[in-house]
Amino acid sequence: MIGIIGISRVPAYCGGKGTFRTRWIMSRWLGKAGLAGVAMIAATAYAAAQMPDHARMHGQMNPGDSGQQQMMPQNGMQGRMMHGQHGMEGGMGQHGMMTGSEASGQPVLPGQEAFGTIQEIVRILEADPATDWSKVNISALREHLIDMDEATMRAAATERALDNGIEIAVTGEGRTLDAIRRMIPAHVHELSQLGWNAKTEDLPNGVKLTVISTDARQATKLRALGFMGIMVQGAHHQQHHLMMAKSEFTH
Question: Which end of the chain has fewer beta carbons closer than 10 Å to its terminal beta carbon, N or C?
């Protein structure tokens, strides 16, 4: 608006008559154009004043650029897609991979560890056409699993650190004592296979297990493992369960 008014004030005379008339006509035209511009700006300001506050704010935040307005829905969709993706990732982080029961809609856990172990062995036997059912003894496997439970959960273990290993007095009463006397001596052979020197001695109410090594690092490991850490050594337990069920192995 200031520029237009300034032009309209340029002196009309700058030379001959033709120039004077031309300048005079341009001056009048520019003056009218300036007045029209002022009127347009005033009308725009009035209209803006009548607009609600939230509409003006929207206009400021989203200028009337067609390219930008066309991009807005895409950005919104992209934002929703990213939010959905993060939601899925968050869900996976909290719940992890779907379990068999969730995928199939059916429960898969047996509810009790010994029950599940026996169930696994029975299914292996049923899937093997060579199974001799006249020799199968699931009751023997059940008794062994009871022994494992007694020795693991109910036996008392008093450990004494040795310079070259560990000495453990494993004691109990009743059914627990029977399990100790069956399981601990039988495990000595497996420990020897691992390169340790293991032996047992009978106690009035249990068994004393001694496991040593000439390797200082192994001796430190033995002391760290303690009773149950030593008892779980070796990968023979699972195979022994199948052999017991087939009457091919006894403790």
Answer: N
